[in-house]
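Summary of Year 1 activities. Much of the first year was spent building the evaluation harness for sequence design. The harness presents a backbone, in tokenized form, and records the residue chosen at every position. We chose the following record to illustrate the format because it has been used consistently in internal testing since the harness was completed.
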């Protein structure tokens, strides 16, 4: 095997991630979630972790408030969340995850486990465990927390 560059490594990791996620999205479609996107799961996880308004969601995902509002509108349209006027502040809309949204997260988790099992068959149990251990050396035992404030922008938590 020829020597690869750091950029090649980054592209291999990104491509592996994308293939895994694309497989999950395709399977979600067959299980009744044809309009699910990875960004929906990230947003729903952030909402489940406490982001209950567009401002909160924007901070947690490190996106603009306008982008958060668009994401919320898409989630409402698909039935994954509902919004209601905050009784203490009529300008604020509180976000709640619906049963359909919980179903999406549950199905996604199950499918990720199924895909991992297929990778284990393809690579071998010991090899996949070694790959995971090697990757954990770079990200630690707790890979990126997608609902942590500012994660995408690389902001440190204080």
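For this record, the design step produced the sequence shown next.
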């Amino acid at each position: 095997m020829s020597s690869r560059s750091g950029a090649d490594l980054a592209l291999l990791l990104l491509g592996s991630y994308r293939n895994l996620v694309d497989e999950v999205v395709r399977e979600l479609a067959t299980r009744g979630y044809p309009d699910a996107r990875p960004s929906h799961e990230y947003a729903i996880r952030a909402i489940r972790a406490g982001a209950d308004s567009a401002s909160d969601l924007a901070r947690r995902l490190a996106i603009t408030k306008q982008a958060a509002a668009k994401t919320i509108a898409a989630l409402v349209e698909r039935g994954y969340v509902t919004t209601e006027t905050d009784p203490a502040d009529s300008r604020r809309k509180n976000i709640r995850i619906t049963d359909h949204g919980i179903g999406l997260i549950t199905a996604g988790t199950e499918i990720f486990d199924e895909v991992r099992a297929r990778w284990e068959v393809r690579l071998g149990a010991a090899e996949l465990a070694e790959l995971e251990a090697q990757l954990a050396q770079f990200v630690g035992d707790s890979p990126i927390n997608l609902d942590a404030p500012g994660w995408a922008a690389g902001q440190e938590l204080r």
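Residues 136 and 142 are 8 Å apart (CA to CA). Quantitative recovery figures across the full test set are reported in Table 2.
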